[in-house]
Design brief:
heterodimer, A: mainly alpha, Cytochrome Bc1 Complex, Chain D, domain 2, 39% helix, B: mainly beta, Methanol Dehydrogenase, Chain A, 35% strand
C-alpha cells in the first residue's frame, strides 16, 4: 500500500498520517477476527441479507447472514409500527396495505423482497420509482417496528402478537392472513 | 358526399344562421387537432361530418400504435401538419407519427427523462393529459415539474424549464395551452400540501414571465386594482391568507392541475383550482381561498380580473379544476357570454365570463352533500348531515372524485348540448390527523367509495345548458373516465373503463357503434381529417388514472381505502380489463 498524500507534506499533516497508518495497520491485524457481529441494521442495508436476487453466479456463497428483526415479536412493537406507519405518512402512499401511489403492501410478490432485511433496506434507502428514502429521518428501532407492522399486514408476524381488532374502519390484519394473494374481491 | 349528408348540412346551416357565426362556440376548424381541448373555447366539437349517424357503424380500425407504457393513458393525441403527436404517461415520451405513410410509422420519439422519483408524488397515477401545438413547436409538461418545447418537425428539444420541486410534493399532469405567446402551466399536488400556482412561460424562450399562486397574499396571487370579483363573499384583501389558520395557506393545495380556456376577444383565460389541503377540513377552518375557485386572468401578465370560489371550505375534495367551455348563449332573451363549468361538487355552473356572475347552477346528477347554490349571493348551502371531519360520515354523494372529474366534456352548436362523461359514486370517510411531511401525502381522511343510486358507477349525460336539465343519459358500469368529442355528423365518441370505444347519436343517445379495445379507456378521443381527405377518429386505450389505479397500479382490493378510497369502488376492474397503452385510429372503409 502506498499513501502518496503522506509524502512531502507539512509536519502536522505528517503526524496525522502517521496516526492514521498506525490505526490502519492495527485494523489489518484484526481483520480476520469476527467476534462482533455487524448490527442488524448494517446487515440489512449493506450486507447480503438484503439481497434482491435469487440468482447467484457460481452457486451459494458462505456465510449467509440472517437478519432478525430485533423488534419483532411483541404486540407492542407491531402496534407502535402501525402508529408510525400512519405518522410518517406511509399510509398516504400505501394506504392500509392496498396501495395507491405506492404498490400494495399486502401481497405475495414483492418487488424488492419481503424479508425483514429487504423491507428495512427499502425504507432506509428508498426505491427508484417513487419510494422516499427515510434514512436519517426515522430512528432505527422505529424502522424495525414499521417493518414488523408491514409484515404483520401479510400475516408474516406471530399471530399471538398481531392485533385482532382493527384500529380503523378497514384493516384487520388477522383476517387478512389468508387474503394476501392480491385477488380483488 | 355521403347519402343523407345534404339534409344534415342544411340543418347545420340553419342552426348556424340562427346562432350567428360570431359566437365563440362556432370556432373555425381546419380538421386538425392542435391542442387537447380542440380550441381555446374548449368545445371539443369538430365540424367534420364524413362520419355520421348513418355510417358510423362501418368504422374500422385504420392503424394502432403501442405507447409502451402501462399506466393510465389520459392524453389527447394531437394532429398537426399530417403528423400525430402522442404524449405518454411517465416517462412522458412524445411520439410523432407520419400520417402520410401507410400505417402511420413513427417519425421520431422525444424522451425528456423525468426523474423516476416523481412517480412517488403523483397522487392519482402517473398520467399526462396531452400537449399543445403553436408555431412549429409542441409544448407539454413532465411529471417532474418541467415544461418542454420540442420542435414539431425534428423532435429536438428547444427549451426546458423547471417550474417546481418534487420534494415539495409538486408534479405536473395537465395539458398546457398557448395564449398570446404564453404557455400556461399549472402544478398538481393538492394531496401533497403543495402551494398551488399557475405560470405563464414565454413561448419563445421558456422563461417564466409570471406565476400566480392560488394561496397567500394578494401580491402573490396577482390580485391588483383591476380585480373585481362579482360577489361580496369573494372581496377583500389578502383573502388567500386570512381565510386560513395561521400559516396553513403555505401548504394549502389549490393546485391548477387541469384545464385552461381562453377568450381572445375579452383577452381573459379561465381555469379552476383544486381542493384545499389537507382533505380533513377540521385542520383548516375558514373559507380556504383560493381553493375550489375559478379565476379569470390576463395571459400577458397573469393579473386576476375576477374569481369565484364555488366550494368554500371544501369538505369532500371537490376540486374546481374541471373544464370551462366558452359559449355565447341566449338566456332569458339576452345573449350572454358564459363559461359552462360542470363542477366536481355536482353543479353545472353557467358563469358570465366577463364579470364572474353565476347565471345558473344546477345539479346534473345525484348530490346530497350540497343543497343548493344561490346565484344572488354566489353561496352554496352544505347539507350539515354530510359534513366530513374527524367524525365518520356515511352515504355522502358525490364521492371525492366528484360527480364529474377532469374528464372533459364537449359541446355541439348543432344540438346545443354538452356531453358530460361522469361518475355516480358515494362514499364514507373517517378523518385522521394529517401530518405534514414535505413530499408525502397530506390528506387526513380514510375514504371508501361505492356506486351511487342505481348501482352504475358511471354516466354519460347530454345536458341542455340553457334549460339546465339532462336531455338523455346512458348508464355505464364504471365511472366514465374518458373525454368526449362531438362532431358535425352528430356523433358523440367516448370510451369506457371496461374497454369499449363507443359512438352514440348526439341528439338522442342512441347507441350506434362500439369497438372493444385492448385495455380500458381513460383518454380523450379526437377526430381529424387525414392527408387522404378522410375523417379519422383516434383514442388512446390504457386503463389507469385515479379510477383505474386498481389495475394500472396492481392494487389489492382487500383494502378499500387504497387509492384514496377509489379502490373500494373499482376493485372488480381487473375482471374486465388489463393494463397497456395503445393508440387506436378508426375510419370508414
Amino acid at each position: 500500500m502506498v499513501f502518496p498524500w503522506c509524502i512531502d507534506r507539512e509536519d502536522t499533516v505528517r503526524i496525522r498520517c502517521t496516526i492514521f497508518l498506525a490505526c490502519f495497520l492495527w485494523a489489518s491485524c484484526q481483520r480476520e477476527k469476527r467476534d462482533i457481529e455487524p448490527s442488524p441494521a448494517r446487515l440489512a442495508v449493506f450486507g447480503d441479507a438484503a439481497r434482491q436476487s435469487d440468482l447467484r453466479p457460481g452457486g451459494p456463497v458462505h456465510p449467509q447472514h440472517v437478519v432478525n428483526n430485533p423488534y419483532n415479536s411483541s404486540g407492542y412493537d407491531i402496534s407502535e409500527g402501525q402508529r408510525l406507519y400512519n405518522w410518517y405518512n406511509c399510509s398516504g402512499c400505501h394506504f392500509d396495505g392496498g396501495g395507491g401511489i405506492g404498490p400494495p403492501l399486502i401481497k405475495t410478490t414483492w418487488i424488492y423482497g419481503g424479508e425483514p432485511a429487504n423491507i428495512f433496506d427499502t425504507i432506509v434507502k428508498g426505491r427508484p420509482n417513487g419510494m422516499p428514502s427515510w434514512g436519517g429521518r426515522i430512528p432505527e428501532y422505529q424502522i424495525w417496528q414499521i417493518v414488523a407492522y408491514v409484515r404483520s399486514m401479510n400475516g408474516l408476524q406471530p399471530t399471538s402478537a398481531t392485533p385482532t381488532r382493527p384500529d380503523t374502519i378497514e384493516t384487520n390484519p388477522q383476517n387478512l392472513q389468508n387474503r394476501t394473494t392480491g385477488e380483488t374481491k | 358526399m355521403n347519402p343523407g349528408g345534404g339534409i344534415r348540412l342544411t340543418l347545420a346551416g340553419s342552426l348556424l344562421v340562427l346562432s350567428g357565426l360570431a359566437q365563440i362556440q362556432n370556432q373555425p376548424d381546419d380538421g386538425q387537432w392542435i391542442m387537447a381541448p380542440k380550441n381555446h373555447a374548449s368545445t371539443r366539437y369538430s365540424t367534420l361530418n364524413q362520419i355520421n349517424t348513418e355510417n358510423v357503424r362501418n368504422l374500422k380500425p385504420a392503424f394502432e400504435f403501442s405507447t409502451g407504457t402501462i399506466r393510465g393513458n389520459e392524453a389527447a393525441p394531437l394532429v398537426v401538419n399530417n403528423t400525430m403527436y402522442i404524449v405518454t404517461p411517465f416517462p412522458n415520451f412524445l411520439y410523432a407519427l407520419d400520417l402520410t405513410k401507410p400505417g402511420a410509422p413513427m417519425k421520431w420519439v422525444y424522451q425528456p427523462n423525468p426523474s423516476p422519483s416523481a412517480q412517488g408524488v403523483a397522487c392519482c397515477d402517473t398520467v399526462n393529459r396531452g400537449a399543445a401545438y403553436d408555431k412549429g413547436r409542441i409544448y407539454y409538461n413532465t411529471l417532474d415539474v418541467q415544461t418542454v418545447a420540442v420542435d414539431a418537425n425534428t423532435g429536438k428539444e428547444v427549451w426546458r424549464t423547471k417550474l417546481g420541486d418534487i420534494n415539495m410534493g409538486e408534479s405536473i399532469t395537465m395539458a398546457p395551452i398557448v395564449a398570446k405567446g404564453k404557455v400556461l402551466v399549472g402544478n398538481s399536488g393538492g394531496e401533497f400540501g403543495v402551494r398551488g400556482w399557475l405560470a405563464g412561460l414565454d413561448a419563445d424562450t421558456g422563461k417564466i414571465a409570471w406565476r400566480a399562486y392560488a394561496t397567500g397574499p394578494d401580491k402573490d396571487v396577482l390580485i391588483g386594482p383591476n380585480f373585481k370579483p362579482f360577489y361580496q363573499k369573494d372581496r377583500g384583501t389578502d383573502l388567500g391568507v386570512k381565510t386560513w389558520p395561521s400559516e396553513a395557506w403555505k401548504i394549502g393545495g389549490a393546485a391548477a392541475w387541469s384545464w385552461i380556456s381562453y377568450d381572445p376577444d375579452l383577452d381573459l383565460f379561465y381555469y379552476g383550482t383544486s381542493n384545499p389541503g389537507p382533505w380533513n377540513p377540521e385542520q383548516r377552518p375558514g373559507d380556504n381561498k383560493w381553493a375550489c375557485t375559478i379565476f379569470a386572468r390576463r395571459p400577458e401578465t397573469g393579473e386576476a380580473v375576477w374569481a369565484y370560489q364555488m366550494t368554500p371550505h371544501d369538505l369532500h375534495d371537490y376540486d374546481g379544476i374541471n373544464e370551462n367551455i366558452l359559449l355565447d348563449l341566449t338566456i332569458g332573451g339576452s345573449l350572454r357570454k358564459v363559461l359552462a363549468h360542470p363542477d366536481r361538487n355536482g353543479f353545472l355552473y353557467l358563469i358570465d365570463r366577463q364579470t364572474g356572475e353565476v347565471v345558473s347552477a344546477e345539479k346534473f346528477g345525484y348530490v346530497n352533500t350540497i343543497e343548493s347554490v344561490d346565484v344572488k349571493t354566489g353561496e352554496l348551502k352544505y347539507n350539515p348531515t354530510k359534513e366530513s371531519g374527524f367524525k365518520t360520515v356515511r352515504d355522502a354523494c358525490p364521492a371525492p372524485p366528484g360527480l364529474k372529474d377532469w374528464t372533459p366534456s364537449s359541446f355541439s352548436p348543432r344540438t346545443g348540448l354538452i356531453y358530460l362523461p361522469h361518475n355516480n359514486m358515494c362514499y364514507e370517510a373517517q378523518g385522521t390527523q394529517a401530518n405534514y411531511i414535505a413530499g408525502t401525502p397530506f390528506v387526513g381522511m380514510k375514504v371508501r367509495m361505492y356506486a351511487g343510486p342505481g348501482g352504475n358507477r358511471g354516466i354519460l349525460s347530454a345536458w341542455d345548458p340553457v334549460k339546465a336539465k339532462t336531455v338523455w343519459s346512458i348508464n355505464e358500469t364504471f365511472p366514465v373516465w374518458s373525454g368526449t368529442v362531438v362532431t358535425a355528423g352528430d356523433v358523440v365518441f367516448y370510451g369506457t373503463m371496461d374497454g369499449w370505444f363507443k359512438a352514440v347519436d348526439a341528439r338522442n343517445g342512441k347507441s350506434l357503434w362500439q369497438f372493444k379495445v385492448g385495455s380500458g379507456i381513460v383518454g380523450q378521443p379526437v377526430t381529424y381529417k387525414g392527408p387522404d381527405g378522410k375523417q379519422y377518429v383516434a383514442i388512446l386505450s390504457g386503463v389507469g388514472g385515479w379510477a383505474g389505479a386498481a389495475v394500472s397500479g396492481g392494487l389489492n382490493g382487500v383494502d378499500g381505502t387504497g387509492a384514496l378510497g377509489f379502490l373500494n369502488a373499482t376493485s372488480d376492474l381487473g375482471k374486465y380489463t388489463t393494463k397497456g397503452g395503445m393508440l387506436y385510429v378508426f375510419s370508414l372503409p
